[in-house]
Structures are given as C-alpha cells and as structure tokens.
Design a protein that fits this description.
disordered C terminus; elongated; 13 helices; alpha+beta; about 725 residues; about 30% helix; 29 strands; single chain
C-alpha cells in the first residue's frame, strides 16, 4: 500500500470538511488560512518522507517488486521504502513480510526488533547471496501487528528456494535436536524435521535448547521464515527455517516417554536377516567409545565389531566410556550406520586396545570403523588447513593416515622420512559401487586410518642412513671425484708432455753444441798440437805462445762441455734435488781445495717437475758463480721444506762483492727469470770479504694426493650434509 498517498487524501478530505462546515465569511477566511497551514505542513512532511532534492526517489515500495528483480537489476542499489511485520529476528538481520511477500533485511542492529513488530524500512536494493534483499539505512518502529498467516508448504516447495524469506508452515517428525557451536546465539539450536518427502533443519534461539531436546520423535507443526544454506555461486544447498521460538511450534503428537525402552540390538546384528531392524525405525545399540566429535559423530565398538553413529548432541563423553545410542539405521556403501542418535552414557571404562593388522588387511573391509594398529615405513607428510595426512608403505601397499584436527604441537613435524612407525586409529573404508559383487560393477575400495591425536603415532625405528637422498648425494660426490681425477690426470699428462718437449729440445741443443762448438775446439787443439810438434826446440818464444793457445783452447773446450751438461735430458722428478746439486758441486770443485757440505730441514717430499728443474738450474748457476769468481774455501748447500714453500740456499765464504748495477750478467738474469716463472722470491746477499748467499723461496701447491683429497672431501660432506662424524686416519 502507498501510505504517503492515502495520508494525502485523508488530509485533503479533512480540510474540505472544515471549510464546508464554516458558514460565516470570517470562519471561511479562517478556514482558508487553516487549510494553507495544513498544506505547508504536509509539504514539509512530504519532503522529509521522500528525501531532499539531492537524495534518490523511492523506486520500490513492496517486497514482491524487489523479489522480481534479477541480480543485475538489484545491484543498482535503488532506493526502497517498505512497511511490514517482522517474522524473524536474527543476529545479522530481519525477515519482514508486507502485504505482497516476505523479504530479508540486512541491518546492523536487528536485536532491537522482535517478531510481531510493525516497522518502516528505508534502504537500498542488494542482490544478496541467493535472492534480492534490502540493505537498511534506517528502520522506524510503528507498533505491533499480528503475524501473517503462514503458507503450508512441502519439502519439494522449500527445496526450490522460491519460498525464501516467506512465512511458511511445515509438518513432520523431530529426528534430532542439538546445539551448533559455529552458529549465532539466535540460531544455536537446530532441529531436524523429517517431512513426508525430505528433511528440513529448523533453527531456534539457544534459550530453547532444553525444551527443544524433549521434542525428539514428536510430530510437530512449525511456523517460520523460509531460508536455505547456499553455495558460493548463488545455488541452494538445503532448505532451512528461521523460527522465533518454541511458541511457533505446535506439538501434534508427543514424543515417547523413554526412547531407551527399545530392545538392545547387537552391533554385529544390525540390518541382518531377521534382526528386527529396518531403515524407518529407531534401534538401540551399545558399545565402547573409540572415537568422538561433539555434536557430530562417534564410533562404538562391541564384540570386535564397530558402528559409526551421527548425533547432534554434545555430551561430555570420553574415549573408553560405555554408551548407548538410539537412532535410525542408514545405508552406506561400506555398510549401515546409525543417524540422528540420542546418546546415554552408561558408565566410564578403559580405552580399548587396538587390533594389530597389516596394511593389506585393511582393504578387506573386515575392520571397517574398528580401532586398529599397523606398522609401515613413513614416506611423507602433507599439512593442510584442516588436516594432516601421513603416507605409509608396507612392502608394495600404501596407506593414508589422517588427523582431521591438527594440533598446535609439532610432534608429527618431527617425523623423518624413512622411519618405521606404528599408528593407531580408526579404520575407514570408502566403497565406490556395489561391494563384493564382481563383474562390471565391481567396487573400488579406498581405505585410510583416522588418527585421534598425534599420540597415535609412535616411531619404532629411525630411518636408515641409506635413503634415496643420501644415495643421490654419494653418487654426486663420486661423480665429482671422478671428474676431478680425470682432470688431474689430463693435467699431469699435459705437463709431462710439455716437459718432455722441453727436454727433447734441450737434448737437441746439447747435441748441436757438441757436434759443432765442442768438436771445433777439439779440432783447433789438434791443429795446435801439430804446430807445436813442428816447431824447432830452439825457438822457445814461439813454443810458449803455442802452448798458451793450446791451454786457452783446452779451457774453452772444458767450458763448452760444462755448458752442455745442464742441457742433459735427464728428468729431475726422479732425482733428489739436494743430491743432484751436491753431485754437480763436487764435480765442479774436483781436484781443488773447496769443501762442499749439504743440509736439509723439514720433511722432504717430491716436488713438481717444473719447480725441481728450475731450482736445480738456479742452484747450479749459483754454485758455478761461487767456484769461478768467489775463490771460496767452503761451499754450503741447504734445502728447507716448509708447509707451503721450499727454500734453496747456496752460501760461500769467498771474496764477496758490492752490489751494483752491473749484476746483470747472463747467469744472474737466467736465475731471476726462472724465479719469476715460479713466483719465487730470489735474494742475493753479499759483502766484500764475507762471502755470498743466494737464496730462493718457491711456493708449493698443497700436499694433496688423490686419496687425501677423497678422505678430506668425504669427511667434510659427512659433517655438513649427513651430520655424522667419520674419522679418517
């Protein structure tokens, strides 16, 4: 109804009546003034009701016109003003019904209104999560009004979702009653109503919990606002009813006095031949609790058989308690369960011991819902928001162990891959198809173990060191070692080839010198000897000159032969450096009075061929210079082996000399060049009359053999990667 237009008519009729009753002119004049005042007040009231010129005009004034909008049209947010009666108030909003239909009102403070309040709502249209709704900007209470007459509906009508927010009435039997901890206070109590063609959940305030729990198995008529649970894509999941309180429920048939007066049915006999059980009447079973989740489910085990039971109750039950349950049998692919059970705690007891089984035994289905324990090798762990999953293997069979309520402790996080563990929990078998029929319709059996806490997992043996990851590490290390070995071998071969090429070239030069210069000196000496023999004895002056020439030739020949000796092809790698230098020195001073001594310090070790060869030539040149120029009485040759260097020193007690710029002879230049090639430090110390000391310090590569390298590498990797301490000798 358009309340603003009816008020306008009523005001005009009232003013016209006043004018008609005024007979005198003065009274008519006063009536006209009075009418003008009324019109002014009415104009102000119209502005207040419809908004200022800057606000949007009211587009929709009935619930039915809003419900007819598509989600796209409702998303425009156009202005709404409706009047109606509150049929349900929740913690999040109101359900209001006017003369056309019911609609949901989203409001921040719904608790200020109750069922039966007549209100005026100003707001905007919104698509809502399922049907169009009104987002209230202001609500004004007009008074109290009777609730509309409810519409009798069936489950089929409710399941379409078309009755959403409408005030309806349903009739059925109360299957279960329980509190839901995740629901708001105004919807905490939930009753499951079994209608002729389906099940509907009814929500009531938590204050009605005691009265509602006494309605189990009663036939009732319930009046309330239709609603539903929904998916995210605006699709209905299941119909529900918002009910204001117990005053909206009428008991048509009272519940039985004692649900537990039914005969006790053994779990093993449920739904068997002539067991007296069916899927339409309650049964009474009893057993020991092995698993329990408040207001959801529990598992009872008795006589080696187990039964899954759903319940809306949340009593204080512990594992091991003896419990009775009265509920409706329901068919599942893996076997019957009991739904909508009412529980009664008989007595406390000890927890049952799990039945030892193998992973392969679980697939048979004989242990469905039983408390079992099994062992296997732990493969991996997966952490999800609402569960933790462990993967085990026994021989070729895999098993999933699931903890649906992850704990804050990190007990399962400490499990190491490859450990042998023992788990205890509920065996769950999931069957797809018809079980044990064979043929084309054969079933697919999936099984898992439901853990109750992290204490259901025990480590039997830690993982073996020979895991796949460690094998990969070792293979990688061996591959690197082989590559290093091949690289070293190739490098050493190249060095030997290069050294051999140098030796071959020096041998060639030695032969060339021997075949040319040395033989020439020998020929000159022969000719001078012939001339000496042909000179008469009485010519003494000429004889002396020829003898002097012969001595010079002999000396030059000796020097040429000494120069050929350093170019010998003999490799120094097989000759001790100190022994070689001592032999060279003694050969040079043979027949003289110079005393030669040698000294060695440190632990001798083989030197790389290029270092040994260069030090040999530097030492020979230093010895030759001392013998030829210093006129010493004593010559000392010493070698000191250090960790990363070798020091060679040649010292004499000869004449000595003063350092000057003329120290650029061919021999000294050769010594400096060889030292620079080794990155060695060459030092020459001399003072006149105090002798000379020539010392060269050559750096050495680390004393690392292949076996030593392998041992050190293995120890490093073992300590850093494998976390074990391997001591090498």
């Amino acid at each position: 109804m358009d309340y603003s237009r009816s008020n306008t008519r009523r005001t005009v009729y009232m003013i016209a009546g006043l004018i008609g009753r005024s007979c005198r002119r003065e009274q008519r004049f006063r009536a006209v003034l009075r009418m003008g005042a009324f019109f002014a007040v009415f104009a102000i009231h119209a502005l207040v009701c419809t908004g200022t010129p800057n606000s949007s005009p009211v587009r929709y004034q009935t619930a039915a016109s809003i419900l007819a909008l598509s989600p796209e049209q409702a998303s425009h947010g156009e202005a709404v003003q409706i009047r109606g009666v509150v049929t349900r108030s929740t913690d999040y909003g109101l359900v209001v019904q006017d003369r056309t239909a019911g609609i949901y009102i989203d409001y921040e403070h719904p608790g200020t209104f109750t069922s039966g309040d007549e209100i005026e709502v100003n707001g905007i249209v919104d698509p809502g999560q399922f049907a169009p709704i009104v987002k209230a900007q202001s609500i004004r209470k007009l008074g109290r009004a009777p609730l509309p007459r409810p519409k009798e509906v069936s489950f089929k009508q409710l399941s379409t979702g078309d009755e959403s927010s409408q005030y309806v009435s349903i009739t059925g039997e109360v299957r279960s009653a329980g509190l839901r901890t995740v629901a708001s206070g105004s919807q905490r109590l939930w009753l499951q109503i079994a209608m002729a063609d389906g099940f509907v959940y009814v929500s009531l305030p938590k204050e009605d919990a005691d009265a509602g729990s006494k309605l189990v198995d009663a036939v009732v008529r319930v009046n309330g606002a239709a609603s539903s649970t929904r998916y995210r894509n605006r699709q209905i999941n299941a119909p529900t009813l918002f009910v204001a309180g117990m005053q909206s429920i009428t008991v048509l048939r009272p519940p039985p006095r004692d649900l537990f007066a039914l005969p006790l049915t053994p779990i093993s006999r449920l739904m068997q031949y002539r067991s007296g059980t069916d899927y339409y009447h309650r049964v009474r079973v009893a057993g020991t609790v092995t698993y329990f989740r408040a207001a959801e489910s529990l598992i009872l085990e008795d006589g080696g058989k187990a039964l899954f039971v759903t319940t809306a109750q949340a009593p204080f039950i512990k594992l091991g308690d003896r419990v009775e349950a009265v509920g409706f049998p329901a068919a599942r692919d893996s076997g019957p369960i009991v739904e909508d059970a009412v529980l009664r705690d008989i007595a406390p007891g000890q927890q049952l011991q799990p039945t030892p089984v193998t992973i392969a035994d679980l697939s048979s289905g004989s242990f469905n819902y039983n408390l079992v324990s099994t062992e296997g090798r732990f493969l991996s762990r997966v952490q999800e928001p609402y569960r933790e999953v462990l993967l085990l293997r026994d021989k070729s069979t895999l098993l999933l162990a699931e903890l649906t309520e992850p704990e804050k402790s990190n007990a399962l996080q400490k499990l190491q891959d490859g450990s042998v563990i023992r788990i205890s929990g509920i065996s769950i078998v999931d069957i797809t198809g018809t079980w044990n029929t064979g043929g084309p319709g054969a079933s697919a059996v999936r099984y898992k173990v439901l853990l109750r806490s992290s204490n259901d997992v025990q480590v039997i043996r830690p993982p073996s060191w020979w895991t796949m990851m460690h094998v990969i590490y070792i293979a990688a290390i061996l591959g690197v070692l082989v590559l290093l070995f091949l690289g070293l071998e190739i490098y050493s071969r190249i060095e030997r080839w290069r050294l051999q090429a140098v030796l071959d070239e020096r041998e060639r030069l030695a032969h060339e010198i021997h075949d040319t210069l040395a033989q020439s000196f020998a020929g000159i000496g022969f000719q001078l000897q012939a001339i000496r023999n042909a000179i008469p004895t009485q010519i003494t002056g000429l004889t002396q000159q020829v003898d002097l020439a012969r001595e010079l030739v002999r000396h030059s020949h000796k020097e040429a032969r000494r120069s050929i000796e350093p170019l010998s092809p003999e490799s120094p790698k097989d000759v001790d450096l100190l022994s070689s230098l001592e032999a060279s020195a003694r050969k040079m001073v043979e027949g003289g009075t110079i005393e030669v001594t040698t000294m060695s310090a440190g632990t001798p070790r083989p030197l790389p061929p290029h270092i040994a060869f260069s030090l040999l030539r530097i030492g020979q040149e230093a010895i030759a210079n001392a013998v030829r120029h210093a006129n010493p009485c004593h010559l000392e040759i010493s070698i000191a082996y250090q960790k990363y260097a070798v020091r060679l020193a040649v010292k004499d007690d000869g004449n000595g000399f003063v350092k000057s710029g003329d120290l650029l002879g061919f021999g000294l230049r050769g010594m400096r060049k060889r030292s620079a090639a080794l990155a060695a430090k060459l030092e020459i110390v001399s003072q006149p009359g105090e002798g000379t000391r020539v010392e060269v310090a050559a750096p050495l590569p680390p004393n690392l053999t292949l076996s030593t390298f392998i041992k050190r590498t293995w120890q490093h990797l073992a300590e850093r990667i494998l976390h074990v301490d391997i001591k090498t000798k």
